[in-house]
């Protein structure tokens, strides 16, 4: 809920991953230099683009994955419509919790929760890259973590996670970062977790179609504007919330080095929410089979434009801005204009990401009517799946 907060002006960073800037003129530290501001906001934009770009590429492979532990979570139109309401209730609940209970104990629980999540997310992020550094003779053993409920025919899988020795090494390296964050709350450790959360979100959260994406982005557009401009709830929670749910970069890095404490920041929601829509457009590009990524690059450029506009408006009005106010119209409007120019609006809105037929996935177009034993039913279904393949092999056009 807080991750979709505004892009913030500089604020003291006490190790938390969420925060809000003080009102203009209330900060006692000297103003940032133009060089420091350029470095900070340039770094934030770059850090926002990396998980979107690579997360979108990995979302294509994720859609084709046979591993049940890496299957994407599909967001439907009903989920998209409810998301702003659920996020608002969560945000308001956190606000009441911080008003009623001790902030110290709540943040301790949150730190432990995000400590575990951050280690798992970072391990999943670096695993493909780390595989290149392992020698060919590395003793890599396969493991499976399986939890089931019930017995016999009523047995159901609760958790089915497959991993290997290389994954355990990545988990150990990620744990080092986790301990660093838990003990020091350093901004670099915060950003490593934030980037991992963002990339995993773009990779594993899939919109089923463009209409669902428009509903989700439109709802969160209203959510972001209301809670940032309409009330002080977002700012209060952001000041109190200690978790890696934003990217930060110091504006006084050139003067103080790694001990800098005058931070500009960007909520992870402003990365993940547009990012999953951009990833959807990449999968739509691939489904067109034209060997072009027009809609992906258009939306990617639109995101850069929207984020740059956010920074510009923020410094004009000297007030934290809800980034989705500028990102949503850009990320939806630019690709839609391209679709109108190319005459592909119908194809864009009829595309169903969850209905893609992958090369390794057999498609059963109708259910056979078979009486008899379960074995005869299985034989009949196998014939229905194998016969079309034999006909395709004999077809001259297929050759």
UniProtKB/TrEMBL annotation:
Keywords: Endoplasmic reticulum, Hydrolase, Membrane, Transmembrane, Transmembrane helix. One of its GO terms (biological process) is membrane protein proteolysis. Pfam families: Peptidase_A22B. One of its GO terms (cellular component) is lumenal side of endoplasmic reticulum membrane. GO terms for molecular function: aspartic endopeptidase activity, intramembrane cleaving. It comes from the Eukaryota. The keyword Translocase does not apply. Residues 1-31 are annotated as: Disordered. It is a multi-pass membrane protein. The keyword Endoplasmic reticulum applies. The chain crosses the membrane at residues 38-60, 80-98, 105-126, 204-229, 263-282, 294-317, 323-341. SMART domains: PSN (SM00730). Residues 1-27 have a biased composition (Low complexity). It is found in: Endoplasmic reticulum membrane; Membrane. Belongs to the peptidase A22B family. This is HM13 protein.
